[in-house]
Design goal:
single chain; mainly alpha
Length: about 100
C-alpha cells in the first residue's frame, strides 16, 4: 500500500511545472565574463600578515564585557511588569455589563 502511495506521489511530482529560471537572468549577467580565479598563496600571506586581527586582546575583552553588561541591563529592564498595578487592578475588576444587555 505504501509503495502505491509513493509511486503516485512521485508521478504527481513529475507533472509539476517549474518556473523558467533562465528568464530571471538579465542580459548583463549573461554577457558577463566568468570571475577571475586567484591563486591561494597571496590570500594566505595577507591573512598571515594580519594575524593579530581577530585575536582576543585585553581591549577586545573590555569592549565585549561592556557590551555584555549593556545587554544584561536591557534584559533586566525587560523582565519588569508589562502592566502597571493600577491597570492590572482595573482589569481584574472586569467589565461592567449594562443592565439593558443582560
Amino acid at each position: 500500500m505504501r509503495l502505491i502511495v509513493l509511486i503516485a506521489m512521485t508521478g504527481l511530482a513529475a507533472c509539476a511545472d517549474f518556473p523558467q529560471l533562465d528568464d530571471r537572468i538579465g542580459e548583463a549577467a549573461r554577457a558577463a565574463d566568468y570571475p577571475t580565479l586567484l591563486p591561494l598563496d597571496p590570500l594566505l600571506a595577507a591573512a598571515a600578515a594580519n594575524e593579530t586581527a581577530g585575536q582576543i586582546t585585553p581591549a577586545s575583552v573590555a569592549a565585549f564585557d561592556s557590551r555584555i553588561a549593556t545587554l544584561r541591563a536591557r534584559a533586566a529592564r525587560m523582565r519588569g511588569p508589562v502592566i502597571d498595578g493600577a491597570t492590572r487592578r482595573r482589569m481584574q475588576r472586569g467589565v461592567a455589563i449594562p443592565a439593558a444587555i443582560r
